[in-house]
Amino acid sequence: MPRLVLDIDGVLANGQYIPENERTVDKFIILNRLYKEIYFQELSRIYDIYLITARTFTDAYWWTNKWLGFSSVFMKGLFTGIRASEKASIIMALHPTVVVDDSPIVMDSLRSEFVHPELILFDNPFWPENQAYDRSGVLRVKSWDELYNYLISRV
């Protein structure tokens, strides 16, 4: 089964940037979901879904599962506390087919791999570097509806 790797903050959760020293459970648990739960159900029939996040607060794994709610049933793995500079090596170890992230740093790190997965940059209007990012081989999507329709159509 193809593997789909999704970032959480900026892809599954609204894209507001939270400075590293302010990243607490209280800040993350109130973030709105950008996706519809039915999307996880449908995509999990086609892809093995892995989630990866830089969330580093105490019990980030537990709190993130709580935040995901029912959607957590459909994922194959969750990785928390992963900094942008470490994401590419962890993502590549998963041998993904598609990676969706809002970080230009992650996109560039993955693009530097000789053989890399399909890369999708999720639009984040709160992040100037995201807005300025334009590289060949990276598809940009602006919403979960657009992402879902694309992922369904490619299989």
Please, could you describe this protein's structure?
By secondary structure, this protein is an alpha/beta fold. 35% of the residues lie in helices and 18% in strands. The chain contains 7 helices and 6 strands, in the order βααβαβαβαβαβα. The chain has helices at residues 25-29, 37-44, 60-68, 84-93, 104-111, 128-132, 144-153, and strands at 3-7, 48-52, 75-79, 98-101, 118-122, 138-141. Strands 3-2-1-4-5-6 form a 6-stranded parallel sheet, sandwiched between helices.
Poorly predicted runs are: none
Query: What is Rg?
Result: 14 Å
Question: Mind summarizing the main beta sheet?
Answer: 6 strands, parallel
Q: End-to-end span in angstroms?
A: 11 Å
Decide which structural class fits the backbone. Answer: alpha/beta
| Relevant CATH superfamily | HAD superfamily/HAD-like
Question: Could you estimate the helical fraction of the residues in percent?
Answer: 25-40%
**How are the strands of the largest sheet arranged?**
3-2-1-4-5-6
Say how many strands there are: 6
Shape by Cα distribution: globular
Might you state the CATH topology name? Rossmann fold
**Number of folding domains?**
1
Q: Report mean pLDDT, rounded to a whole number.
A: 88
Strand content bin: 15-25%
Mind telling me the CATH class?
Alpha Beta
Q: What is the count of DSSP helices, taking H or I runs of 4+ residues?
A: 7
SSE pattern: EHHEHEHEHEHEH
Name given to the CATH architecture: 3-Layer(aba) Sandwich
